[in-house]
Every structure is written in structure tokens, then in C-alpha cells.
Design brief:
Number of helices: 3
Distance between the termini: 23 Å
Shape: flat
Strand content: 25-35%
CATH architecture of the domain at 8-14 and 71-215: 4-Layer Sandwich
């Protein structure tokens, strides 16, 4: 299956549109200049036998390898297929395990990948229920990524859905008016739906559209030839 949730160029567009450059100016004023090394200032006592030495500046804190979302001026968006974060039949050691949740180690791997990139906005597919999306949201928060705003949606598929998490407030959501189509006199529905979310980034609104496309398998009813 193929997961497509916007493309990488949108990330660049958002980043460039929010990046601001600030220029700082200095104002000259009359003041007593600092004496050169080896000279005494006019008020320094001639009898002083030692010179004050400026303390070394404190060492800079070690880099953790992560950027601080609160200090960034861009918007970092990540799209990810969490691969059945839901209760379903699973296969292990040649056996079928019925109605099993996603294994804990697989969940931890997803959270680690997402948290490593410190996203501001996340689009997810193959979410089971709204409770599953809330679980991802909570685990990201425990990993240091707080995305308090969420949206959950889907299509005709009752099992797999789309999810959206954001550091910024959600100002609007939408759904397509038409979610079905006819092909060779048969009626079909959009299984996974379309995610449509607008977020408010410090007064600027950015709209995210996402869908979960299926693989390009050849099927008789979809072959125009």
C-alpha cells in the first residue's frame, strides 16, 4: 500500500513563508572607553598589585540533536503510515492471532521515529479508532512532543482511518461533498476518505489535504483497456 500525504515541497513552502529575518541596529553614544590591556583606568589605585581578570564564560549546553519547536520559525510537517495502529488479526510464527492490537515494540518504534524529527504537524494513516489516535498523541507527549490539537476522519472503510495532530490550533476542517463514483456501471466509495484540516499559525492559516492511496495493482474492473 502507498501512503501519500502531501509532498515534500509543501514543507519547503511553509518553511519559507514563515521564515522572518530580523535586523538589529545599534545606537552610538558617548561613554568612557575600556582601557587597553596593560593600562590603568583613571580611577584604578596605583598601589593595586593585582589586576581583575574576567571570568571565563560558562560552557554552552551540550546539543541534544533536537531542535526546539517553540523557538523555530518554520512549520515542520511529517506524514506517516503507522501500519495498522488498531486491533486486527495478526500473523506471528506462522499462526493467526485474532483481534490483537499493534505490538508494543512496533508502537515504540513509530513514536521514536516521529519524535526524533520534532514535528509541529503530523498526518497519519491506518489509524483504527479515535482512541488509537489519542494514544499516539499521549505517547508523543511523553516523548517530549506536545501536539494538543487533533482531528480524526475516514471514509467507507470502518476499520482504518486518517488522523491529524498539531501544535497549532485547528481553525477549520472539511469533508468532500461527493465520496462515491461509478466505474463500468458499478458504484464505488472512497474507502479511506480525505483529510482536510486548516491550522492557525500565529494568525496565518495553512490548509493540509491528505489521502491514503492504495497500490497500483491491476484489477479487471479498473482496466480501461
Amino acid at each position: 500500500m502507498i501512503s501519500r500525504f502531501l509532498n515534500d515541497t509543501f514543507m519547503g513552502t511553509v518553511s519559507r513563508s514563515l521564515l522572518a529575518v530580523f535586523l538589529f541596529g545599534t545606537v552610538a553614544c558617548d561613554r568612557t572607553s575600556t582601557p587597553e590591556w596593560g593600562e590603568r583606568s583613571p580611577d584604578q589605585s596605583p598601589s593595586a598589585s593585582t589586576a581583575a581578570v574576567a571570568p571565563d564564560p560558562p560552557p554552552a549546553p551540550a546539543s541534544t540533536g533536537k531542535s526546539n519547536p517553540a523557538r523555530r520559525q518554520d512549520v515542520r510537517f511529517i506524514a506517516y503510515n503507522v501500519k495498522n495502529w488498531l486491533v486486527t488479526n495478526r500473523y506471528e510464527n506462522g499462526r493467526t492471532l485474532e483481534s490483537k492490537p499493534k505490538p508494543a515494540e512496533e508502537k515504540a518504534a513509530v513514536i521514536s521515529i516521529l519524535a526524533r524529527h520534532t514535528p509541529d504537524v503530523v498526518g497519519l494513516c491506518e489509524i483504527g479508532t479515535a482512541a488509537d489516535l489519542a494514544e499516539i498523541q499521549q505517547q508523543l507527549k511523553e516523548a517530549g512532543i506536545d501536539l494538543p490539537h487533533s482531528h480524526f476522519t475516514g471514509g467507507a472503510d470502518p476499520v482504518r482511518h486518517l488522523g491529524f495532530l498539531s501544535r497549532f490550533p485547528i481553525s477549520a476542517t472539511g469533508r468532500p461533498e461527493k465520496t462515491e463514483y461509478h466505474l463500468q456501471n458499478k458504484l464505488y466509495f472512497w474507502n479511506r476518505g480525505v483529510l482536510d484540516v486548516t491550522v492557525d499559525v500565529h494568525g496565518r492559516h495553512f490548509r493540509f489535504l491528505g489521502c491514503h492511496l492504495k497500490s497500483k495493482r491491476e484489477v479487471e474492473e479498473g482496466d480501461d483497456n
